[in-house]
Amino acid sequence: MKExxxxxxxxxxxxxxxxASPTWWGTCAFMLIEASGFSLAIAVYFYLMSLAPIWxxxxxxxxxxxxxxxxxxxxxxxxxxMLVSRWARQRNMWRVRVGLVVMSVTGIVPLVFRAYEFPxxxxxxxxxxxxxxxxxxxxxxxxxxxxxxxxxxxxxxxxFSRHGDNARRYGDxxxxxxxxxxxxxTWLPIYACLYWVPRL
Amino acid sequence: MVEQRLSVIADTDLDRAGLERELxxxxxxxxxxxxxxxxxxxxxxARRYIVTAFVFLxxxxxxxxxxxxxxxxxxxxxINPDRYNQIFTMHGSNMMFLxxxxxxxxxxxxxxxxxxxxxxxxxxxxxxFSYWVFLAGGILLWLAFLLDAAPDVGWFAYVPLAGPxxxxxxxxxxxxxxxxxxxxxxxxxxxxxxxTVFTQRAPGMSLDRIPLLVWAMLVMAFLVIMAMxxxxxxxxxxxxxxxxxxxxxxxxxxxxxxxxxxxxWFFGHxxxxxxxxxxxxxxxxxxxxxxxRPVFGxxxxxxxxxxxxILSFGLWVHHMFVVGLPRLGExxxxxxxxxxxxxxxxxxxxxxxTLWAGRPVFKVPMLFIIGFIITFVIGGLTGVMVASxxxxxxxxxxxxxxxHFHYVLIGGAVYPxxxxxxxxxxxxxxxxxxxxxxxxxxxxxxxGFHLTFFPMHILGLQGMPRRIYTYQPELPWGGxxxxxxxxxxxxxxxFLVFFIDAVRSCVHGPKAGENPWNAPTLEWxxxxxxxxxxxxxxxxxxxxxxxxxxxxxxxxxxxLRTDRRELLVTSVVEALPHARESSAPQSVWPFxxxxxxxxxxxxxxxxAWAVVWGSMPIAIALIGWFWPKGAPEEES
Lengths: 200, 636
Prior knowledge:
The complex is a heterodimer.
Chain A: E1 2-8, H1 22-51, H2 65-89, H3 93-120, H4 129-160, H5 167-196
Helix pairs in contact in A: 1-4, 1-5, 2-3, 2-5, 3-4, 4-5
Chain B: H1 16-27, H2 32-38, H3 42-71, H4 81-115, H5 124-146, H6 171-199, H7 212-243, H8 257-291, H9 298-311, H10 327-339, H11 341-357, H12 364-386, H13 389-395, H14 399-429, H15 435-461, H16 478-508, H17 546-549, E1 553-558, E2 566-570, E3 577-582, H18 589-603, H19 610-626
Antiparallel strand pairs in B: 2-3
Helix pairs in contact in B: 3-4, 3-5, 3-16, 4-5, 4-6, 4-8, 5-6, 5-18, 6-7, 7-8, 7-9, 8-9, 8-11, 8-14, 9-11, 12-14, 12-15, 14-15, 15-16, 18-19
């Protein structure tokens, strides 16, 4: 087949950034998958609640302290997270490195409080369906914090290595920040569901 | 910044042969065993997927024949009841999770990048990972069958039968974990398809110029993304109920057996459309070629695909009409189940109009499409029948339902798939399939299918329940069952002819040129089979049928580098070029990540700690996968 050149692309950048980047879309698609999973878990929570004569089954509502502190921490973590994202967009290596170290710590601290959230439920996963769904939702969200934490740690190492100063890595940092925001935002309805719905 | 290499080569610096040589050097797979394991070429992976899925089709078909042998006469003793339970469970699970969904996704993996005019699928390593995970899931299920430990709880594994109280041993766990494997691989492909379609379309391929098959695959990918988390939730909670004593499905502790049915069918109904939408996309793409005119009603067809996708999430309760749900809820789901016939009808009318206005050429792919339209309309009509609660109450769990869903699944999906294989085989292999054997295959399959499955409607109306391993001679089902069993041999013979044709044509088929059918879409603008880089130059699209509007000429983009795997990233709506993005080179890490994932998933059927310890090798493999290696693809 005869080819006729109709477009010269040699001037285009070697890497697509921001919303033009396939990685950004990929991250969004994975967030949609996980959001579907969370929505379904919450739907199951309400379904089981609608069947139970009293809710929570046989136990008082969860203690608020650990979960509320964790919620505050997660919400507060959005500020440094957005800063890191902005620094990555500006390709400011020094600030991105510092920011990633801060975000690594910010990923670890909520896990400490998460460890206290499970006992605060006053129920074990195998006691009854209430215990099963609350442990599952908490566990599901914990894996998200863990996943993002590991991702942040690896990225931190990467940014301190010779591979760091590359537009792709800055893009990775931005996508990682996007994902952390997702972890925080999905927590808010879960927090309301686990801690406040039983008090209604 | 990564240091720019001095020896940057652009396609504009080279003549045609030199360009092909350079591109092959950059995109071609490494030779040898590890090269095979490490390849990330979407065509190679899709071919593996398709061949593996067809192997599972053969195995599932053999199980079906075994069941027909057992049911051919009353009180037969070929298969014992326990093995029979395993066989019908394996048949359904295998056909749905190891054949139908994967083969449709594999067709997308092969065709979408070619049809949108790019050089590889988005996230090619994820694609490789997906195949290995799928293969491991299939092997898990079939090994269990060989060890007489296959699931025996039906393809939808209802609790409490599949729960800890009644489902002793590991059979139900194997079913549940096979689901996790296949859903993981399906979700990975769905993400790749969405991102490929959104960001890698050829410049100029705006949303209203996307080939209909690509639209269908895009909607299918979104259905996968939103429906499959439900089944992963279901299969994981089932394993947890069985392994660590959660109480999701135990009514004695606040759980609910019907919860399983809700979650399963919330996935299970969209699943039907995950299989069906690619099939109608194939029909809408193949039909215009064989009538040599553009498809009638492009916009209504796209709207119908999207509408079907949305409506498919509002139908699941029609699988549960006999469990005693509130009357109002049932009425709602009756209405929504009937409503989905509207977009299906719109598509049928568009196809008929396309046929009417064109000059049909009845080659084998076209025969399968005509067969599809006839069979699917019958299956659709019985679907409207069972959408009605009083009727469904009568025929629920009878052979009427078995007949109905084979009409929609084989008629609605396998016929278009076979049409697609005959149609794209020349592109995939460079050789044509036989027109004579193809006609034999079509008529044997078409007639064999109707003779096998139509009488099942009558058996169902006569009250024969599904999933029984035998029946008494006094019951009036013997004659029809014998007839069905004999007819199934004819159907199987049709598939045998098809497979003989496929294998024979691979080696001896006449050579196909670039575009043997004079088709209008971009995959026909490159050689058959396409080179590792798909297109020598990325096409530039100016209308919906690029190869028809300018016969013999292809408008292309120039200025891409050839010393790294480079493709064009374009905008979502208008496909304006944004960047020359790189595509990941081959890697063995996806393979190791899949091995680590498989070990964790299989181990977790036996111990919950597997999730903790098994995740570590996965994390290591993923770090190896993503850690930069200093390749030119890293440049930015």
